[in-house]
């Protein structure tokens, strides 16, 4: 009971923080549209890590993630006047990242080594515990399996499992209903289980 | 497997499914959620904004996509636009013509047919006054005018007409 109350309080705090963040974004966008370039820098500083993380999850490659992150902000800068504020700025920004990563895949410019090369950041660390290495290998296997999913399922799953993104936010990024997000995640998970455990009964 | 349990979990991760298979799925989801994105390092972030600034300046100097097209593509696009503009205009004028003829009433059609009908001899004779006829008869000196009328000097005929 006590645990339930604590979680409810945490949930309330998260919602409040999210609303405050949205309001802050709205003010920054208004300032930028009024000619204040520094407001855009603030938006970049606030979201660059999240954009990079989403881009990396799509590509598993630093160069491509870097390229996608920079291009996301270039597009945001050039198109911010068309941002109508129907969705949050974060949702709008991640939609740009998602679309760019889809286009990158379609154009075939994605490195063939994506997801296959050992990550220097972890593999080079000889002091990493064995558990971390096993966990890292498991994630690589998962990533390879995710690459075999249909595009919509893959993108929905990667967004939904990114940090604290809600189904509503993913629906906003993917421009679909919340029901479609849930169905895509469910079908993706079913397919992932089939790929990773071919003998598993479903 | 209870799909609804997974849907509930997606809405609220604190709602752990009761079904074993569903729990296996949520465990897989959590595993994906915990995937650590490698930090590219502080140096990367320190240089990020400068790199972005350079890229923004390059994008400002970049010509719009339609100015970067080859000349022949521009010419082709112009030709397509001109054709697209002219073809409907031709169709429209044809349509207007058809519509105007179709919209004529019986009375209009009767008027048109009367106006453009060939004139008979009786109508032509009405145009000539008796004095004109006399003058004509004098001009041909009482000969059989039916035959000689065509031999009359045209200048003479014209002067008679003017006097009349």
N- to C-terminal distance of chain B? 113 Å
Name the CATH homologous superfamily of the largest domain in chain A. RNA polymerase sigma factor, region 2, helix turn helix motif
Mean pLDDT across residues of chain B: 77
Order of helices and strands of chain A: HHHHHHHHH
- Sketch the topology of chain B as an H/E string, one letter per element: HHHHHHHHH
Helix content of chain B: over 70%
* Uncertain parts of chain A: 112-126
Number of helices of chain B: 9
What does this structure look like?
The complex is a heterodimer of chains A (202) and B (164). Chain A is mainly α and 202 residues long. Chain A folds into two domains: 1-109, Rna Polymerase Sigma Factor, Chain: A (Orthogonal Bundle); 129-202, Orthogonal Bundle (Arc Repressor Mutant, subunit A), CATH 1.10.10. Chain A has nine helices and no strands. Chain A is globular and about 60 Å long. Chain B has 164 residues and is mainly alpha-helical. Chain B has helices at residues 3-11, 20-33, 42-61, 71-102, 106-116, 121-126, 130-139, 145-148, 154-163. In chain B, helix 1 (3-11) runs parallel beside helix 2 (20-33) and helix 7 runs antiparallel to helix 9. At the A-B interface, helix 2, helix 3, helix 5, helix 6 and helix 7 of A face helix 1, helix 2 and helix 3 of B.
Question: TL;DR?
Answer:
Chain A is an all-alpha fold. In chain A, 74% of the residues lie in helices and 0% in strands.
Describe this protein with a few key phrases.
heterodimer, A: 202 residues, mainly alpha, Rna Polymerase Sigma Factor, Chain: A, Arc Repressor Mutant, subunit A, 2 domains, globular, B: 164 residues, 9 helices, 71% helix, 0% strand, elongated
């Amino acid at each position: 009971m006590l645990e339930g109350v604590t979680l409810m309080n945490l949930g309330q705090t998260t919602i409040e923080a999210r609303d405050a963040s949205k309001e802050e974004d709205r003010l920054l966008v208004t300032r930028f549209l009024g000619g204040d370039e520094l407001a855009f820098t603030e938006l970049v500083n606030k979201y660059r890590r999240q954009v990079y993380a989403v881009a990396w999850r799509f590509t598993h490659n630093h160069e491509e993630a870097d390229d996608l992150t920079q291009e996301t902000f270039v597009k945001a800068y050039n198109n911010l006047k068309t941002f109508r504020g129907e969705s949050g700025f974060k949702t709008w920004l991640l939609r740009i990242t998602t679309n760019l990563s889809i286009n990158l895949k379609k154009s075939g410019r994605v490195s063939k080594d994506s997801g296959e090369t050992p990550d220097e950041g972890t593999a080079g660390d000889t002091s990493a515990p064995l558990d971390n290495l096993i966990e890292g290998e498991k994630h690589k296997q998962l990533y390879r399996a995710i690459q075999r999913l249909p595009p919509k399922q893959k993108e929905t799953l990667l967004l939904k499992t990114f940090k604290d993104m809600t189904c509503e936010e993913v629906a906003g990024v993917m421009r679909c209903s919340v029901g479609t997000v849930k169905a895509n995640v469910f079908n993706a998970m079913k397919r992932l289980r089939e790929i990773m455990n071919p003998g598993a009964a479903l | 497997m209870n799909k609804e349990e997974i849907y509930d979990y997606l809405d609220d991760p604190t709602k752990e499914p009761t079904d074993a298979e569903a729990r296996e799925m949520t465990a897989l989801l959590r595993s994906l959620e915990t995937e650590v994105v490698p930090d590219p390092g502080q140096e990367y972030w320190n240089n990020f904004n400068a790199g972005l600034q350079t890229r923004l300046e390059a994008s400002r100097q970049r010509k719009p996509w339609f100015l970067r097209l080859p000349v022949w593509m521009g010419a082709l696009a112009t030709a397509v636009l001109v054709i697209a503009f002219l073809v409907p205009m031709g169709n429209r004028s044809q349509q207007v013509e058809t519509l105007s003829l179709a919209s004529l009433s019986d009375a209009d059609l009767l008027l048109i047919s009367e106006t453009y009908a060939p004139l008979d001899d009786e109508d032509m004779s009405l145009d000539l006054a008796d004095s004109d006829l006399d003058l004509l008869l004098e001009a041909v000196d009482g000969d059989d005018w039916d035959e000689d009328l065509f031999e009359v000097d045209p200048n003479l005929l014209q002067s008679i007409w003017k006097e009349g």
